[in-house]
Amino acid sequence: KVSDLSSVKKYIKQNYVQPNSAYTGVAKGKNVIYIHLESFQQFLIGYKWQGKEVTPNLNKLYKNKHTLAFDNFFNQVGQGKTSDAEMMLENSLFGVQSGSAMSTYGTSNTFESMPAILSQKAGYTTAVMHGGTGSFWNRNNAYKSFGYQYFMSLNYYNYQDSWYLGYGLKDKIFLKESAKYIASLPQPFYLKLITVTNHYPYMLDKQNQSIKKTTTGDSTVDGYVQTVHYLDQAIGELMTWLKKTGLDKKTLLVFYGDHYGISNNHNEAMAQLTGIKNYGEFEDQQYQRVPLMFYSPALKGGVKHTYGGEIDVMPTLLNLLGISSKKMILFGHDLLSKDNPQLVAQRNGNFISPTFTKVGSSYYYTKTAKKVTSKKDKAKCRILANKVTTQLSLSDRVMTGNLLRFYKPSWFKKVDTSDFDYNKTAA
Ligand code: GP9
Ligand code: MN
């Protein structure tokens, strides 16, 4: 109903925060390349195994003076996993309570997504490249609704069986074979590269194993450092290529981890990997941190400590590109804004904030990991929990009621999915 949209609009307006003007437009007109780091958790940055850095290339990027990195950035996915991360990054809308919003609503809902906005407002060419099957998570339909002009999936790549592992082409091969497509995109472009090799159960062929497995004895955990290391090497190769072509200077790279790699079924093994003796529900919550890094030679970098999550990426990126998000229905907030509310909702109603954390029916002090017992602080926690419930349910209303079809701002032309055809045509 249209009236549902009014309450959403009111909420969004009341909760709008002014983006940080010091960063407005610093990457204006630059290409954007999203690099999706599959199942990559923040703790891997700087992590060493047997004296060896597991992710030397990403570590270098993290510390680079042109990288804006966030060390309190959390994934907020639900059952839709990768697709929920994509939904949040492209739309600043949450995934839904059960299943994948991209699968359930991706085909027929109206969206006002990053690719459509950038192409309409700033003349961007928009594309996704992924070495897996195009129909996975309903990408081949949802991307059209998001306004993506191109989607190169598995059938765009001439591959041999040995190049394929798990969910798609091995990352090094995928990125190398994507180069010719990247080079042919008219600039400025907005591109997402989706890696897959670092995916549960973390298998890797012998010749690509260049770091030893960990020794927790948990077989689906112990391969993790190996596939992570391989992904990191693939990123290193991509960076070399971007520098060689000079594309790096014209591009804003955005790295993000989509969700955890090690689930809470493996707390025992995580205790060993992290050295935390009592690794329980609180620690598991803390380890939902994933990387978020913006890199561009023009950026003044640094590691920021704002508590935020995937829902906040779109408003942050829009500000860096100099596009105002004031009139948009976005549930996130600029991560660089000093007014960011720093309340990170998780899909199940749990949350993390700099002061309090909610896991299940317990509240904790974020800094000390102690349970909240005082009445006064519990009351504060309940206020935060209510805020979380409100934003999730309003986002759900937008998604399940397809409310954006009623929102017709003058600056946006509704996406016509029949404009796009992702079938590979003869070269
Ligand atoms: C497959 C990949 C995996 O294309 O994106 O999705 P996930 O299982 O991580 O949600
Ligand atoms: Mn994933």
UniProtKB/TrEMBL annotation:
GO terms for cellular component: plasma membrane. It comes from Lactobacillus equicursoris DSM 19284 = JCM 14600 = CIP 110162. This is Phosphatidylglycerol--membrane-oligosaccharide glycerophosphotransferase. It is a multi-pass membrane protein. It comes from the Bacteria. Residues 30-323 form the Sulfatase N-terminal domain. Keywords: Cell membrane, Manganese, Membrane, Metal-binding, Transferase, Transmembrane, Transmembrane helix. The chain holds residues 224 to 650 of 690 of the full protein. GO terms for molecular function: metal ion binding; transferase activity. Its main location: membrane. Substrate binds at residue 199. Pathway: Cell wall biogenesis; lipoteichoic acid biosynthesis. The active site is at 82. It is found in: Cell membrane. Belongs to the LTA synthase family. Mn(2+) binds at residues 38, 82, 258-259.
